[in-house]
């Protein structure tokens, strides 16, 4: 990263950040909260959930702040009616894709999707729901993968690849059939590459990967990636 | 374990040409499907090991593109283009007719392994929509009658084997 500093405005606050910083990081560093679902500090940005969209003065387009680098003179708006509508719409699409039924979910009350829906005021889904049923994999000793609750944020895939380094998890297929797989779409219990490190369960924002018999609030420590990296780079 | 034969030697050669680069995965998958007809788990595992790629990543790529087949196709293969132009030109009706006449489902094969019916997205011949591919022969401006007749001919041994 070059040493230059970039001066810009986020929600009318003047900020100075190093060149190459993403808007999301710049906002966070200056106390501005932008909603996210796929972002985890310490992992590569994915830009998949579309929750962190922001407006940049002078452009009619919306930008995903986690993958848009800052530049000098930018004037960024992170909260507006347009953005709220957009985020609500994107969230409804996510909700309509799988059977997100909070009352029967292990993640109830410690779910980022649920929390965000509350915050944005999404209390119903205006689209027809897609009720495709996906297999649940509970063959692992203690990790459970319930694809019906997955929002395809790829946090687990990235933490498995970038932090644990084994890349056991990935996605297969595309569109409404897209789903998380273990190795060559094997049963998790038979996986030879999985190290059972639980990081995937820790970063999962919903109840798609969880540790059997453990309360979600105990399992989840979202800072696992950042922590490991900081220890590694000492 | 992958059997030692010409087909394996072919993939090995291509992988060596590409210096076992991770980025050559697509190229290798193409070659592998060329030689084997489809990509099964043993083959994918072998490719993953050779290129030192995670198996899940290799399967992810192979399933992302509808071109790659993960199951053995039948002796004869019919592929319907479900791109926008073909869709608008009612390719669906032709597909339904094939499904009905040959008792087969999209993405599947007949129990005797004689015929497979696949779908694909846009083969780039939109001016000729609707397009159906029967054993590597593209039938443009296809109609139910022409396609069903062509498939019947192929099944009776008149068509070129894939």
CATH class label of the largest domain in chain A: Alpha Beta
Radius of gyration of chain B: 17 Å
Along the chain, the helix and strand elements of chain B come as: HHHHEHHEEEH
* Order of the strands making up the biggest sheet of chain B: 2-1-3-4
Helix content of chain B: 40-55%
Taking pLDDT < 50 over at least 5 consecutive residues as the criterion, the unreliable ranges of chain A are: none
Multimeric status of the protein: heterodimer
Going by CATH, the architecture of the largest domain in chain B would be 3-Layer(aba) Sandwich
What is the overall shape of chain A?
globular
| CATH topological fold name of the largest domain in chain B | Glutaredoxin
What spatial form of chain B do the alpha-carbon principal axes imply? Answer: elongated
Mean pLDDT of chain A: 89
Largest sheet of chain A: 5 strands, mixed
Task: Report strand % of chain A.
Answer: 15-25%
Explain the overall architecture:
With 234 residues, chain A is α+β, with helices and mostly antiparallel strands. Chain A folds into two domains: 5-79, Ubiquitin-like (UB roll) (Roll), CATH 3.10.20.740; 96-232, Alpha-Beta Plaits, CATH 3.30.70.20. Chain A has helices spanning 23-29, 81-97, 112-120, 155-164, 199-203, 216-219, 224-232; strands at residues 5-10, 13-18, 53-56, 62-64, 75-77, 136-137, 143-146, 169-172, 179-182, 209-211. Chain A has a five-stranded mixed β-sheet with strand order 2-1-5-3-4, with helices on one face. The longest helix of chain A is centred in the middle third of the chain and has 17 residues, at 81-97. The model of chain A has no long low-confidence stretch (mean pLDDT 89). With 162 residues, chain B is α+β, with helices and mostly antiparallel strands. Chain B has helices spanning 6-17, 25-36, 41-50, 55-64, 84-88, 91-102, 144-155, and strands spanning 76-81, 115-120, 132-134, 137-139. In chain B, strands 2-1-3-4 form a four-stranded mixed β-sheet, covered by helices on one side. Chain B starts with 5 loop residues before the first helix and ends in a 7-residue tail after the last helix. The mean pLDDT of chain B is 87. The A-B interface holds A 161, 166-174, 181-185, 193 and B 41, 44-45, 54-60, 63-64.
